[in-house]
Amino acid sequence: MKKIVLIISLIGVFILLFLSQSLEPKHLTVQEIKKLPLESKVKLSGIIFSISGNEIKNIYVQDKTGEIKATCKCNLKNLSENKNITIIGNLGIYQTEKQIYIKKIIKN
Prior knowledge:
Low-confidence stretches: none
Largest sheet: 5 strands, mixed, barrel
Helix content: 10-25%
Shape: elongated
CATH architecture: Beta Barrel
Number of helices: 2
Radius of gyration: 18 Å
Strand order of the largest sheet: 2-3-4-6-5
Distance between the termini: 52 Å
Structural class: alpha/beta
CATH class: Mainly Beta
Number of strands: 6
Number of domains: 1
């Protein structure tokens, strides 16, 4: 009986771990994102108003509530300024400024 309970508990833990990694966060605005604690998982849709950087790309995204920098080590071949995108990532900070560390970019 104890083995069955242990197995069921382990399966439950693995399911929760899988779901926590695979569920996407709800869409947020820049204003809402900037109020969140660091390491929060975020999803933002907006317009690229600037791209800079070589190896590490800095993408400046703007929505109706403000703007925020998002960074990634990624290939941005098909992205340019004034394009609509959705980014998913984790909220971080660099030199006292909150930014998004991109995990996924979706072109809208």
